[in-house]
Fold this protein.
Amino acid sequence: MAFKRVFGIVIDSVGIGEASDANKFDDVGADTLGHIGEFYKGKLSLPNMEKLGLSNIRPDNPIEGVAVVDQPIGYFGKMHEISVGKDSMDGHWEMMGLPVTEPLGFFPHGFPAELIEKIEQFSGRHVIVNKPYSGTDVIHDYGEHQMATGDLIVYTSGDSVLQIAAHEDVIPLEELYKICEYARSITIDKPYRIGRIIARPYVGPDKDHFTRTSNRHDFALEPTGETDLDRLKAAGLDVLAVGKINDIFSGHGITEGVHTTSNEDGMNHTIANAQKDFKGFSFTNLVDFDAMYGHRRNPEGYGQALMAFDKQLGDLLAILQDDDLLIITADHGNDPGFRGTDHTREYVPLLVYSPSFEVGESLGIRRTYGDFGATVLDNFNVSGNTVGTSFLSELK
């Protein structure tokens, strides 16, 4: 059957075990959901994802606290990434039929002096730090200096990102965004080719009370080709972006985009979309799992966020119509029980539901995240490319 509306939710960084090529990324042993379950010792309560078939994805090694159910109400499986990296941009682009085949620029020892000098000359401000750092640690360690001097805190991570942190009372958001836009303009091509420039504003009186605000803004590379979002929009369908989806695709292929302040806010907007009359695709990213808990290696907070999401998922499931299709997945892993602070190369869960389903079954291991976008296109009878394989015909 064809569905009038498709809802896609990316639970950012919620991996489900090391991918087959994890050794290439030094991520053997990574297991985001598995390690969170172990941390909670059977008290991780995810009843809605459980009944969709979350642990049925790996019945021989179920997530502790999440049962393998005899009759799941959804289809379940996992997807493998074929992009060369494990950044959010790579994952989302691949979902929409545009895998990243050319490696992005990584700077594990900080950015070249000539790039920093250009940012300093444009901004009229001195740059400090310029090395890999935890986002919360860097403002704790350098935030007071930044407030006193007006310098720019520039740092990176294991991903292809250049992040600029500044106190909102010292450098106004408009100025910070302008600086980031300039940095974006000079890092599109080699030798830099940086995936994302991220504005990281923070507030607070001192290092023990600094907090990063929801005014974060990602300046991603423009998509290097047509995505499934472009194809849907060109076909006259609604494409509703919730959260950082708009940033990741630089606004391409989107008919309506909304910024969010939290996972809860993102789900509220998704639920609001389900209450609208539209025909097309609602695409949501819930970034808190990644930004607030994965990178900070906080399994307790990560588990609490998963349980809060699961509760709101129940609210969404209750209002979906028979001609609605829900697809839940992730863009990479970020195991809070693993070493380091970076993303982890993992399979990502695939949960698919409609109130019209008779029974849920396994969708197996999907070769590429692109199967997600291919299925959405297939549903709306829109031509795509050959990156992904639709699983629409497998849904009964």
